[in-house]
Amino acid sequence: MGKLKNYTTKVPARRSIQEIHNSLADTGAESIIMKMEPSTGRTIGLSFAIRVRGQLVNFMLPVDLDGFRQALIDDRVARAKEDDYVYRVAWRCVRDWVMAQMALIRTQMAEFEQVFLPYAMSPTGQTVYQELMCGDSRFLLTGGTE
Question: How large is the average pLDDT for residues 90-112?
Answer without folding.
Answer: 95
